Rubredoxin
Amino acid sequence: MRFEGSFLAVKPDDRLECGICWWVYDPAQGDDVRGIPPGTSFAALPDDWCCPGCDAPRHKFMVLGA
């Protein structure tokens, strides 16, 4: 899968930010809007998952810096 930050090595605990609305996916939090439990890495999200803030597809997400 390719996404905005795909040039970086994405680790299971990396947080990613939507490039459209700036909503942040944090694996430690999961996504209660879409029923994703805490501890789910970005790579493990379902193929049909999209941003709960604006419905942007996964490829619009960018890895946040440390």
Observations:
- The chain has one domain: 13-66.
- The mean pLDDT is 88.
- The beta strands are 16-18, 24-25, 61-63.
